[in-house]
Write a structure and sequence with these properties.
Layout: H1 4-28, E1 36-40, H2 46-54, E2 59-62, H3 65-75, E3 80-83, H4 92-95, E4 101-105, H5 108-120, E5 125-130, H6 147-154, E6 160-166, H7 179-194, E7 200-206, H8 213-218, E8 223-226, H9 228-231
Parallel strand pairs: 1-2, 1-8, 2-3, 3-4, 4-5, 5-6, 6-7
Length: 237
């Protein structure tokens, strides 16, 4: 059950998060308007998203295709949908006409499928290359020393527009411990940018979640993906 207390709590949380983003942006020398907040709504109901929309949040992140589709059926184009979780090739067809951005481009087979489906519905899909900076073997993503080759390969696909990089830092009690992950993703994006690959743009760095987004912003994040600090603790997933 979604209650009026839930509504108030989400509004309060959003105000706090917006302030914290603004403060971190100032510290990092970025304009707060240049930092995109993707509210991660996975496991939370459409009612919760509607409260965030009232608070002028435009971008929502989902990590499961099924859930994204269900919510899209209700909310449609009232907001923009970001696919932030690993994407199976056989599910691309369900979201290709719905997503605003895919954050988890991590293999050529997936790029091939996105190209094929995007072409058939005449769209160009904004994608971020997911990088496994920390090297944890439980994490998806291209390894840092293969990002350049991967970007070169993806640049051949006219219906995919690479707009930057994404990473997930390891969970830690002390987010200072993962500052190096954000620094390294920034460095990779600067290096790739200097290569001037056709059709590859390094405008966005999607990094930072509830417990580490301020450090990510200090290191140059301009997309942060925040779930539990807005909507509350998830019961599962
Ligand atoms: C769940 C999730 C988030 C948000 O995590 P919180 O800790 O709830 O802020 C961000 N990015 C990805 C890829 C996620 O799966």
């Amino acid at each position: 059950m979604f209650t009026s207390d839930d509504r108030i709590r989400i509004k309060d949380n959003l105000n706090t998060i917006k302030d914290r983003i603004a403060t971190a942006a100032k510290r990092s020398g970025q304009n707060v308007e240049d930092i995109m907040l993707v509210a991660v709504s996975k496991n939370f109901p459409v009612d919760a998203i509607e409260v965030a929309i009232e608070e002028k949040i435009m971008n929502f992140g989902e990590n499961r295709v099924q859930e994204l589709i269900q919510k899209y059926d209700i909310l449609s184009e009232r907001c923009k949908w970001h696919l932030i979780g690993s994407l199976q090739t056989n599910k691309v067809k369900y979201i290709i006409d719905k997503v605003h951005m895919i954050h988890s481009l991590d293999r050529l087979k997936l790029a091939e499928e996105i190209q094929k489906r995007a072409e058939s519905c005449n769209r160009v899909i904004d994608c971020l290359i997911q990088v496994n900076v920390s090297g944890e073997n439980t994490k998806a993503g291209i390894s840092p020393d293969e990002v350049y080759e991967f970007a070169k390969a993806v640049s051949q696909y006219p219906n995919i527009k690479v707009k930057g990089l994404m990473t997930i830092a390891p969970y830690t009690e002390h987010p200072e411990n993962v500052r190096y992950v954000f620094k390294q993703l920034k460095n990779i994006s600067v290096d790739i940018d200097q290569e001037n690959i056709d059709n590859i743009d390094m405008r966005y760095l999607s990094m930072g979640m509830s417990h580490d987004f301020e450090i990510a912003i200090e290191e140059g994040a301009n997309i942060v993906r925040i779930g539990s600090s807005i909507f509350g603790e998830r019961k599962y997933g």
